[in-house]
Every structure is written in structure tokens, then in C-alpha cells.
Amino acid sequence: MFVGLGRVEEFEVLLRRSESFYVTALLQAERGMYDLAVFSLEQSLQLFLKAALLKKGVDFPRTHGVRRLLNMLAELTGSDEIKQLQTSHGLELGILEDAYIVSRYFPRSYSGEEFEKLRAAVERVKTVVGGVLAS
Fold this sequence. Notes:
This protein is mainly alpha-helical. The protein has helices at 7-30, 34-55, 66-77, 80-88, 90-105, 112-134. The longest helix is centred in the N-terminal third of the chain and has 24 residues, at 7-30. The relative contact order is 0.15.
């Protein structure tokens, strides 16, 4: 948790940062900086999932693993639709997790096509999780 912030304020900060990273990813992709754009997508999704956990009343773990965060949400909500995301977008989620580490330590390039596939997966996860939390 952020020092001095309550759960609601922290939730709002994480959502705002998630959206900022998403917009940044789009701008980076427009300029052909796909390696940075993929990293920004991962950050956007990671923060979104952590905000979703806060909304469910759970402090998020200090992890960067989007698959672990998504699994926690699936267990908390009992949502088959969220569980299914692990299967339908498992490859993309794994690539996003790798991007977090690779961006810091290894030279790895991503193509525009890869970025678009990852962007679509991030949008799908956010849509499904957001829909489950809203109901």
C-alpha cells in the first residue's frame, strides 16, 4: 500500500497509472519503439490487476507476475471467464511477464505485429476483469 493513502485512494492511483502506461504504450508504438511499448503494456496490465485486487478488498502481493495476479482474481471472484483468460491468452500473458524482465537485462526487440497481439490481449483481460468486478 502507498504510505498515507487509503484503499480507495490507492485504487484510484493504480487505475490512473495503469491508464497512463497504456497511453504511453500507444505513443511508443506509434514511434516504432515496440520494446518500450510492450513494457508499458505489461505495466498497465499489472497495475490494473493490482487495482482490481484492491477493489475486492485484498492487498496485492509484491509480485510482477500478471498471471499470478489474474489467478488470484479468478479465485477471489470464482469467475470462469477470468479463469479462461489464463488459457486463451496464456502465451501473451507470459510474453508480457518476460517483457518486464527482458526490458531491463537483455536486448529483445518486438515487432508491430507482436505489439498489436499483446495490446489486444491486454484490452481483453481488462474488459473481462472490469466486467466481472462491475457485476
